[in-house]
Every structure is written in C-alpha cells, then in structure tokens.
Amino acid sequence: DAPPVSRVIAIFGINEPTEIGAVYRRRCLLVEDDHKVEKMHTLDPSARLVSGKGGLTLKGGVLLETEKGAGKSGDGTVPFASMNHCRSWANDGCKVKVVELQGADHREILADSNFHQTVLKH
User: Fold this and answer.
1) Which of 27, 30, 47, 53 could form a disulfide linkage to 23, CB 3.0–4.6 angstroms apart?
2) What SS3 string covers the chain?
3) Would you list the domain boundaries of the chain?
4) What would the pLDDT profile of 90-118 be if each residue is shown by its tens digit?
5) What is the pTM of this model?
C-alpha cells in the first residue's frame, strides 16, 4: 500500500554488489555438554553458482546481485527490488518520482553531491 501522501520522490543508489541470499550446509556436530548450543548450519564457501540469470555472483556462500546482466542491483545494503517497490505506489494514486544514482552506496549517499543536487531540485 502507498503511504498516505500525494507524491513521493525516492532517491537511491544503484548498481553496487548487494547481498540477496546465502547458501548454507549442515554442520556435523558432536555435543558433549548439555548446556552448550552449537549452530546446525554454516555458510558454504565451497558452493558454486552452476547456472542462473546474469548479474548474480556467489562469494563465500553469499549470493550477490550485480549490475552485470539484464537488471540493476541495489545500493550495497538494500536489494534493488526492495528499493524499486515504491514504483508500485503509483497504482494507488500516489505520484511517484524515482531518481537512481549510479554507484551511490547506501551508507555514503548522504555525502554524495548528486544526492544533494537532486534534493535541491525538488
């Protein structure tokens, strides 16, 4: 659902490698102490991306979206699909303008001059 406002300007960075998933494997466990808790699963650094859509990379068991391939990727923290969700608010009558800043990192966007110029324009 759209927020209860008539217009939204969403400004976010794109095309930074962004975590979207992970590959885990079971750990073999031998618990000798009843009070000790062990993790049953661990990241699988030996996992390989056999086939799939372009733009995905698997590093150390962590699945990342990248700008390579057909789509765009997130800002290094938030996946692109999550940031882009605001476009669906237009279907609820909200006027939505999206400004994508190439290579702007999630944590560093407030120091990006393009971000400040965009805010001042609106």
Assistant:
1) 47
2) CCCCCCEEEEEEEECECEEEEECEEECCCCCCCCCCCCCCEEECCCCCCCCCCCCEEEECCEEEECCCCCCCCCECCCCHHHHHHHHHHHHHCCEEEEEEEECCCCCCHHHCHHHHHHHHHC
3) 7-121
4) 999 899 999 999 999 999 999 999 999 99
5) 0.82
